[in-house]
## 1
Amino acid sequence: MNKLVRDLMQPGLITCKPDATLGQVATLLDRHQIHAVFVADPDGQILGVITDFDLMAGEWLSSDPESLDAMRKLTASDLMTKPVDSLDASTPLTEAIDIFLQKGVARFLVTENGAPVGIISLTDFVNSLTAQIRAHRETVGDVMSHAVLVCREETPVLSATYAMTSSGWRSVMVVDAKGKVLGVLSGYDLLPMIKNHTYDNLTVRDVMHPALTIDINASLREAADMMIKNHHHRLVVIDKENPDAFPIGALSSFDIVAEMARPDSVWQK
């Protein structure tokens, strides 16, 4: 590994003012789907960093009206951690990994010639592993998503939609207490109830549609044919030897398109 921090970092910074309220910081974290915001003065000087853990501590401490009132008066500068841990952009990644392990932190400010230029986090290292995966396009198991968004059938619809929004998933897999797939909740299932404003007391069971399942060893051609024939964008991946067990994963049209878009895909040659 001869790469440097600058090769893996995320350029640019999301910042807030020192007097930003905790609610404003929470909005920034949610909007950008990040775990930390740097606190900067009007000249762009980095003063500290405030994380989702800091906000959670504030939430836990505001257990009564008096405490809540006190916490709402706090600002980013009151809860931020300082000084901010930083790494130079020219630091070798192998050295950066050692520093991550020694410090036990999740992110570093990246500087170049003393000026902040970006951030490098544990997520960047995790994402880098994806690039090491060689393209395979023979079976469902080669392309599917192993991680899935699931809920129980008695989950309120509004709770499920919040999970979809916060995770970026377009559907939720519905399972019973033993993990057996019962159905899928998608955006299309939600449209009628949105039109009629009938979502307040509904559970996922009331609006989900039956799941289409496919074996992990099935060919991608089989999967594509099933999607096209049934006008479904997502299939539930199962082991045909144990079809009632918790699903292995999910295969979506996006998974197939993403595989086609990989630099080493046959579609890019």
Note: The first strand starts at residue 10 and ends at 11.
## 2
Amino acid sequence: MIVAFRPEQPSDVANRPLDGGIAYMVVTISDGKITELKGCADRASAVSYAQTGEASDPPATSGVQPPDAVAESPEHRVNRLVPFVKVSDVERSVGFYHHLGFTVESVFKYRDRLSWASLESDGAEVMFEGTSDPIDHDRQGVLFYLYSHDLAALREQLLAAGIEVGTIEDGSPGPRQEMQIIDPDGYELMVAQIE
């Protein structure tokens, strides 16, 4: 017997392609008892299994697929990522995130006004920088800060891979060495040397 059904939560069967949102199951009954349940990717494979008892290969699906081969990780890599958020009032943001459990780890003041802060809560981190410019939510409002133990070697490795990388510059009062990278979607990444 073939049973066709439409799952309420398609994500529950994300590893199996669905035939127009419908899942198929072949139910084998012997002596009035269910002896086997076999999930099938589509109607054709369900019919084939019901007739032959052998599963056919499911059709190829679009979307993210596992790689054919797992490449070895590069020698030099980043080991930390911290969102760097431009905000209109650093003190207000620090107060808000305090309610989420964040504590202040480091601050920078300019003319007695808090202009930058780094916060931490267990493994979560975030940095805030004050800006007088209006926050434009159509543009990137969060800068991703990444850290490397050997920034110069990472830069050379990226250049060798054909990735455009900025020069290493002094980021004072922040990191003494940092470089800019633009990802394929245009997001700006800053990678800093970690001591």
Note: The longest helix spans residues 43-52.
## 3
Amino acid sequence: MELEFIITGLGGQGVLFLTRILALVARENNLPFIGSEVHGMSQRGGSVVSHLRIGNFSGPLVREGRACVIFALEESEAYRNLSFIRNGGKIYVDTCSNNFPVDPFKNILEKRNVSSVIINATSIATELSSPASANLVLLGSFISGQKDGFTVDSVERAISKTGNSQVIEKNLEAFRRGLNQ
């Protein structure tokens, strides 16, 4: 299995945490992985991008046009990183807008057979009194669509290895809500 991910958002939205969970899931499944992070102005709400490659890769960076999945924790960051998505790839976007992608991006993505999953993950996570778990709502949606790959159990085991018991329960709840989106 070879998967290449771009995880992007703004500082404080959990880009690095989501990357860590995906890496732990790879480890749970005995898969090699390598990654890299670009922090930018993360402490001031600036752009954060993380690259994660699962499989036998020699370098950590996903090249443009190679990512099978982009997780965008902020709609504007989805647009900023579209050059990474491959033909037939999928973009998971946390947004309250039903208008993603807008023209001219919509036409470009349609020509490249790129599909989008739009979820108001922040709203769902806020309902759970855990707005920081929006990233795991997106992950749940991704996992629910997997035919060959990560299992729900392997993701739950990975989540269970992070934080204290209260945080873990909230994170698992957000992940499970994403499975049903």
Note: Strands lie at 3-10, 33-38, 47-54, 67-72, 85-94, 115-119.
